[in-house]
Design a protein that fits this description.
Elements (H helix, E strand, L loop, with lengths): L7 H22 L11 E4 L2 E7 L9 E7 L5 E5 L5 E8 L2 E10 L4 E9 L6 E8 L9 E5 L2 E6 L2 E6 L5 E4 L7 E5 L3 E5 L4 E4 L5 E5 L17 E7 L2 E6 L4 E5 L5 E6 L4 E9 L2 E8 L8 E7 L6 E5 L2
Length: 311
């Protein structure tokens, strides 16, 4: 195990305090009036899937999963029947695991269930509804098996067996905002200002530091942070929320802004798609309307194609 050093109790108290602000901001962004960026985006073979709501301006916030492949238009893959719902996604080979979350107005609480499917089959429930006090999946997740999930919840990484209680998956010396499973039994951990490629025991294989530009003024929602990352063969792809930009980091460590947005577009999801890159943003205007999606397939600078863009 990768162990903490120094006064562990003091560190844990400090990290619990630091956790309050990011969690509060996440709750704010997750309100139905703003709808997203709760959820994520994955690739499965030649397809890309992402979570949103359908219709996009649905005041009841019924979640959906959209799917797209080259030569086609985006369409609904799965539609939730529940208001105030969200989907979170993970793929292992050709299998797709889906966390469906719903908010219960009567008790002001959340419930989740886990579905399993493929591109060709109907989803089946493998974990039925249970109370979710941990906001499971919001910070990324993956499945060890159909009976065990690993998920990120600031500032740690947890494991949960079906019917059990969460426990720490491994101890890590830095706070973790988000996790993403990578092929070859590796995990990408997104911290406050760093990103780590680690083994399943927390051993660091590769590390990227000083990801944030501290000179940014007036970032969206006052959040100068990296919102999402993906990794492929030594390369890193980042959605830099605070800078309204998408950043590519080469094997050499050289960083390049590949797409720069202006207000009101805010980047939040990324995924490598073969030699191309998927860059997902939303329009946050705070006028009571739902954020409108803007998904780009990036090939090279000035040679990107818009996949989904609703004004």
């Amino acid at each position: 195990m990768y162990q903490h050093t120094g006064d562990k109790e003091t560190k844990m108290r400090s990290r619990r305090i630091l956790a309050i602000i990011p969690i509060a901001l996440t709750l704010i962004v997750s309100l139905p009036a703003w709808a997203h960026p709760t959820g994520n985006m994955i690739t499965v073979g030649e397809k890309v899937l992402w979570s949103y709501i359908n219709p996009v301006d649905d005041s009841n916030h019924r979640a959906c999963i959209m799917i797209w492949g080259k030569g086609s238009e985006p369409k609904v893959f799965i539609q939730s029947e529940f208001p105030a719902s969200d989907y979170m996604l993970y793929t292992k080979q050709n299998e797709i695991y889906i966390i469906e979350r719903r908010h219960l107005q009567a008790t002001q609480s959340f419930e989740v269930r886990i579905l399993k499917t493929t591109l060709e089959s109907k989803p089946k429930v493998i974990w039925d509804w249970f109370k979710d006090e941990w906001r499971i999946g919001e910070g990324g997740f993956f499945m060890i098996s159909d009976d065990q999930i690993v998920f990120g919840r600031y500032p740690e990484v947890y494991s949960l067996k079906k019917g059990g209680k969460p426990s720490m998956y491994f101890e890590f010396d830095q706070a973790v905002n988000r996790i993403r499973a990578i092929e070859d039994h590796q995990i990408l951990l997104l911290g406050n200002n760093s990103c780590y490629l680690v083994r399943h025991d927390g051993t660091i294989l590769k590390q990227w530091d000083n990801l944030l530009d501290r000179e940014i003024k007036d970032p969206p929602l006052n959040r100068n942070q990296i919102f999402d990352v993906d990794y492929d063969n030594g390369k890193l792809l980042m959605a830099y929320w605070g800078k309204r930009s998408f950043v590519f980091v080469a094997k050499s460590g050289k960083r390049q802004t590949i797409l720069q947005h202006t207000e009101p577009l805010v980047p939040h999801w990324v995924a490598f798609f073969g030699k191309e890159k998927l860059l997902f943003s939303s329009r946050l205007v705070f006028d009571g309307s739902t954020p409108k999606p803007h998904l780009v397939l990036f090939k090279e600078k000035n040679q990107n194609g818009i996949i989904w863009n609703i004004q």
